[in-house]
Amino acid sequence: MLELQEDKMPERILVVDDEPNMLRLLKTILMDKTGYEVTTTNNPLEVSKLLQDDHYDLVITDLKMPLVDGIDLIGIIKKIEAAMPIIVITAYGTIETAEEAIQKGAYDFITKPFRKETILITIKRALEWKRMQGELAALKKQ
Q1: What pTM did the predictor assign?
Q2: Which fold has domain 12-141?
Protein backbone atom coordinates (compact mmCIF):
# COMPACT_ATOMS: atom_id res chain seq x y z
CA MET A 1 0.00 0.00 0.00
CA LEU A 2 1.31 3.45 -0.86
CA GLU A 3 1.71 5.90 2.00
CA LEU A 4 1.40 9.64 1.69
CA GLN A 5 4.37 11.63 2.90
CA GLU A 6 3.46 14.62 5.06
CA ASP A 7 6.89 16.27 4.75
CA LYS A 8 7.26 16.03 0.99
CA MET A 9 9.36 18.51 -0.93
CA PRO A 10 7.60 21.37 -2.70
CA GLU A 11 6.93 20.73 -6.35
CA ARG A 12 9.36 22.45 -8.70
CA ILE A 13 8.29 24.21 -11.87
CA LEU A 14 10.51 25.48 -14.68
CA VAL A 15 9.05 28.39 -16.67
CA VAL A 16 10.49 29.27 -20.10
CA ASP A 17 9.44 32.48 -21.85
CA ASP A 18 11.39 35.09 -23.79
CA GLU A 19 9.34 37.93 -22.25
CA PRO A 20 10.66 39.02 -18.80
CA ASN A 21 7.26 40.47 -17.84
CA MET A 22 5.55 37.13 -18.47
CA LEU A 23 8.22 35.33 -16.42
CA ARG A 24 7.63 37.72 -13.51
CA LEU A 25 3.85 37.34 -13.78
CA LEU A 26 3.97 33.54 -13.86
CA LYS A 27 6.47 33.37 -10.99
CA THR A 28 4.25 35.63 -8.89
CA ILE A 29 1.12 33.59 -9.68
CA LEU A 30 2.84 30.26 -9.07
CA MET A 31 4.56 31.18 -5.82
CA ASP A 32 1.56 33.01 -4.32
CA LYS A 33 0.06 30.64 -1.72
CA THR A 34 0.86 27.50 -3.72
CA GLY A 35 4.14 26.36 -2.20
CA TYR A 36 5.65 25.68 -5.62
CA GLU A 37 9.33 26.38 -6.17
CA VAL A 38 9.70 28.24 -9.46
CA THR A 39 12.75 28.66 -11.68
CA THR A 40 12.50 30.93 -14.71
CA THR A 41 14.62 31.40 -17.81
CA ASN A 42 14.19 33.60 -20.86
CA ASN A 43 16.63 31.45 -22.83
CA PRO A 44 15.23 28.16 -24.16
CA LEU A 45 18.79 27.01 -24.91
CA GLU A 46 19.37 26.74 -21.12
CA VAL A 47 16.56 24.23 -20.59
CA SER A 48 18.62 21.08 -21.30
CA LYS A 49 21.26 22.07 -18.74
CA LEU A 50 18.66 23.11 -16.15
CA LEU A 51 16.83 19.78 -16.49
CA GLN A 52 20.05 17.76 -16.31
CA ASP A 53 21.42 19.71 -13.32
CA ASP A 54 18.27 19.74 -11.21
CA HIS A 55 14.89 18.04 -10.68
CA TYR A 56 11.67 19.63 -11.92
CA ASP A 57 8.13 18.31 -11.72
CA LEU A 58 6.66 20.41 -14.54
CA VAL A 59 7.72 22.71 -17.38
CA ILE A 60 5.70 25.68 -18.64
CA THR A 61 6.89 27.10 -21.95
CA ASP A 62 5.92 29.84 -24.34
CA LEU A 63 5.31 28.76 -27.93
CA LYS A 64 6.88 31.60 -29.93
CA MET A 65 10.47 32.27 -28.85
CA PRO A 66 13.65 33.12 -30.73
CA LEU A 67 16.34 30.42 -31.05
CA VAL A 68 14.08 27.49 -30.09
CA ASP A 69 10.29 27.54 -30.28
CA GLY A 70 8.01 25.76 -27.84
CA ILE A 71 7.25 22.84 -30.16
CA ASP A 72 10.97 22.07 -30.59
CA LEU A 73 11.50 22.53 -26.85
CA ILE A 74 8.91 19.83 -26.13
CA GLY A 75 11.06 17.36 -28.08
CA ILE A 76 14.22 18.43 -26.24
CA ILE A 77 12.52 18.05 -22.85
CA LYS A 78 10.99 14.65 -23.69
CA LYS A 79 14.44 13.30 -24.68
CA ILE A 80 15.72 14.22 -21.21
CA GLU A 81 12.65 13.17 -19.22
CA ALA A 82 9.90 11.43 -21.16
CA ALA A 83 7.35 11.65 -18.32
CA MET A 84 7.72 15.42 -17.81
CA PRO A 85 4.37 17.22 -18.06
CA ILE A 86 4.69 20.30 -20.26
CA ILE A 87 2.18 23.13 -20.45
CA VAL A 88 2.42 25.38 -23.51
CA ILE A 89 1.27 28.98 -23.19
CA THR A 90 0.88 31.20 -26.23
CA ALA A 91 -0.74 34.33 -27.60
CA TYR A 92 -0.73 32.65 -31.03
CA GLY A 93 -3.11 29.80 -30.31
CA THR A 94 -4.72 27.88 -33.14
CA ILE A 95 -6.34 24.46 -33.14
CA GLU A 96 -3.55 23.20 -35.41
CA THR A 97 -0.81 24.49 -33.10
CA ALA A 98 -2.52 23.03 -30.04
CA GLU A 99 -2.86 19.64 -31.79
CA GLU A 100 0.82 19.70 -32.79
CA ALA A 101 1.91 20.53 -29.23
CA ILE A 102 -0.20 17.72 -27.77
CA GLN A 103 1.03 15.24 -30.41
CA LYS A 104 4.65 16.15 -29.55
CA GLY A 105 3.96 15.40 -25.89
CA ALA A 106 2.61 18.55 -24.24
CA TYR A 107 0.19 17.91 -21.39
CA ASP A 108 -1.95 20.97 -22.16
CA PHE A 109 -2.13 24.17 -24.19
CA ILE A 110 -3.29 27.54 -22.80
CA THR A 111 -3.82 30.73 -24.77
CA LYS A 112 -2.92 34.22 -23.57
CA PRO A 113 -4.42 36.13 -21.98
CA PHE A 114 -5.26 33.50 -19.39
CA ARG A 115 -6.95 33.65 -16.00
CA LYS A 116 -4.90 32.89 -12.89
CA GLU A 117 -7.35 30.14 -11.95
CA THR A 118 -6.96 28.48 -15.35
CA ILE A 119 -3.19 28.16 -15.08
CA LEU A 120 -3.34 26.99 -11.46
CA ILE A 121 -5.96 24.32 -12.20
CA THR A 122 -4.02 23.11 -15.24
CA ILE A 123 -0.80 22.87 -13.19
CA LYS A 124 -2.58 21.00 -10.41
CA ARG A 125 -4.04 18.50 -12.90
CA ALA A 126 -0.67 18.02 -14.63
CA LEU A 127 1.13 17.39 -11.33
CA GLU A 128 -1.58 14.93 -10.23
CA TRP A 129 -1.21 13.15 -13.59
CA LYS A 130 2.56 12.90 -13.06
CA ARG A 131 2.08 11.51 -9.53
CA MET A 132 -0.37 8.91 -10.84
CA GLN A 133 2.09 7.91 -13.58
CA GLY A 134 4.79 7.45 -10.91
CA GLU A 135 2.47 5.37 -8.73
CA LEU A 136 1.46 3.23 -11.71
CA ALA A 137 5.12 2.63 -12.60
CA ALA A 138 5.84 1.65 -8.98
CA LEU A 139 2.92 -0.78 -8.94
CA LYS A 140 4.06 -2.39 -12.21
CA LYS A 141 7.48 -3.09 -10.65
CA GLN A 142 5.92 -5.04 -7.76
Answers
A1: 0.89
A2: Rossmann fold (3.40.50)
